[in-house]
Write a structure and sequence with these properties.
This protein is α/β, with parallel strands linked by helices. 40% of the residues lie in helices and 21% in strands. The strands form three sheets. It has a five-stranded parallel beta sheet, with helices on both faces. Strands 6-7-8-9 form a four-stranded antiparallel beta sheet, covered by helices on one side. Strands 10-12-11 form a three-stranded antiparallel beta sheet. A hairpin with a 2-residue loop joins strand 6 and strand 7. Helix 6 crosses helix 8. It is globular, with a radius of gyration of 18 Å.
């Protein structure tokens, strides 16, 4: 069955280019030129992915993402490529972020990657994150590993849930600091490393899934247990 994508952008040229190219790749594509129009279309249709601009007249892409509350995967596409905007997008549960101008090959690769992550049998919900025998309850703030509840600090829980929510995505230490810690708290790269190492010790066999990307940062990757 074809995957359905909703492209939301107020720039007609961008919308037409994305619509044409995604259709040629076999996707079902609908378009909206505002967040308000997107909401109307989502009342009557189910989409597997949103390609969503941030800066639009009326409701912004960030405001739309807040309303959706993680109910559909989102890739933000915007001319704003500042670090703060990227972090804000991830803070709202975005699955990826592409800055204009972009290449169509990049868009295609990121669309495929997000759909691959989110369409698997263990698809996460807004209240739970699961990977095999590891389950995080985002409401109760608990972690269960192979049937045993594992205590995490508030910081450890926030770090692990961020990595698990964005499987395969590499976060730099500075990005993790900006997302997880309050802005008035002084945090060093070493603090991040210490917390990651503590998490690895607590998740047991799943520690190998928390990957150190030398020169970049950390990611949670899918590695099957032996």
């Amino acid at each position: 069955m074809k995957k359905s994508i909703l492209v939301v952008d107020d720039e007609q040229d961008i919308v037409e280019i994305l619509e044409f190219n995604l259709k040629t790749k076999g996707f079902q594509v609908q378009v909206a030129y505002s967040a308000e129009e997107a909401l109307m279309k989502m009342r009557n249709n189910t989409f597997d992915l949103l390609l969503l601009d941030v800066m639009m007249p009326g409701m912004s892409g960030f405001d739309l993402a807040k309303r959706l509350k993680g109910s559909v995967p989102i890739i933000f596409i915007t001319a704003k490529d500042a670090e703060d905007d990227m972090l804000a997008g991830f803070g709202l549960g975005a699955d990826d972020y592409i800055a204009k101008p972009f290449s169509l090959r990049e868009v295609q690769a990121r669309v495929n990657a997000v759909l691959h992550r989110t369409m698997e049998p263990e698809k996460n919900s807004k209240d739970y994150l699961r990977y095999h025998g590891m389950e995080m309850d985002l409401v109760a703030k608990t972690l269960v590993v192979d049937g045993t509840q594992v205590p995490l600090t508030k910081t450890e829980f926030a770090l692990l849930s961020l990595l698990l929510r964005h499987v395969g995505k590499v976060f730099t230490r500075q990005q993790l600091i900006n997302i997880i810690w309050p802005p008035d708290v002084i945090v060093t790269d070493r603090t991040v490393d210490v917390n990651i190492n503590r998490i690895r010790k607590k998740v047991g066999v799943y520690s190998a899934n928390i990957i150190t990307r030398q020169g970049f940062g950390y990611s949670f990757d899918r590695i099957e247990k032996e």
